[in-house]
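Example 9 (inverse folding). The structure is encoded as follows.
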């Protein structure tokens, strides 16, 4: 029997072509998964970048918390000490007013200082025409029952204030403002002077940084009270 390849030589050519075609196509098939994997790797890198950005954001986020009061760089210990002389002294200085406002936010009673500030602004009105809209805004915000920032006033003071809202005068809120002022002076102000953020300012420490620092200063006995130092970090 004759060799089939001799009778049909085209079979050998066809096989050769098929083999060549297979060689050309085969690498292309292998490359497809590799190409498809690139977008996945890129997406992973993007997700990693976003996670790092979020981490950096949250690490610095604590610097803006109310408990930090104010930066030590902008308030000297001497200035902070003066805030302890009297409540009037504290409120008369912008930095002191800001620090006390932030402190009240930590106690969820910032409506008191906001009402006091609104009353101070009200008394600066130069014309009677300015009094009515300001008076109504203050009343609706701080005094009426179930106001969004209702302050704690006794019944008589609230009644007297409410009756003069339609025809307000420059002294309309004096009684209410004095009541809230005394409340802050006798209650919130002493706690402010005992708070750690204020004491840190008096001592010249930056409230946004930890009290303990490595290799930045000498440690004292008080620094180690209740703390077991980890010497491995050195």
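The amino acid assigned to each position is listed next.
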């Amino acid at each position: 029997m004759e060799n089939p390849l001799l009778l049909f030589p085209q079979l050998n050519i066809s096989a050769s072509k098929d083999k060549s075609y297979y060689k050309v196509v085969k690498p292309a098939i292998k490359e497809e998964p590799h190409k498809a994997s690139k977008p996945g790797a890129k997406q992973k890198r993007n997700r990693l970048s976003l996670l790092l950005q979020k981490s950096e954001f949250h690490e610095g986020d604590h610097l803006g918390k109310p408990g930090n009061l104010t930066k030590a760089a902008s308030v000297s210990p001497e200035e902070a000490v003066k805030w302890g002389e009297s409540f009037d002294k504290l409120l008369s200085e912008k930095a002191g007013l800001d620090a006390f406002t932030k402190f009240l936010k930590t106690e969820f009673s910032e409506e008191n200082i906001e009402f006091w500030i609104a009353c101070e602004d009200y008394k600066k009105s130069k014309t009677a025409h300015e009094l009515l809209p300001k008076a109504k805004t203050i009343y609706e915000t701080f005094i009426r029952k179930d106001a969004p920032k209702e302050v704690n006033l006794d019944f008589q003071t609230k009644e007297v204030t409410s009756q003069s809202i339609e025809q307000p005068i420059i002294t309309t809120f004096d009684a209410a403002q004095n009541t809230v002022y005394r409340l802050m002076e006798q209650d919130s102000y002493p706690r402010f002077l005992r708070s750690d953020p204020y004491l840190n300012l008096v001592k010249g420490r930056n409230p946004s940084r930890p009290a303990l620092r490595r290799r930045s200063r000498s440690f004292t006995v008080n620094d180690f009270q209740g703390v077991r130092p980890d010497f491995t970090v050195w």
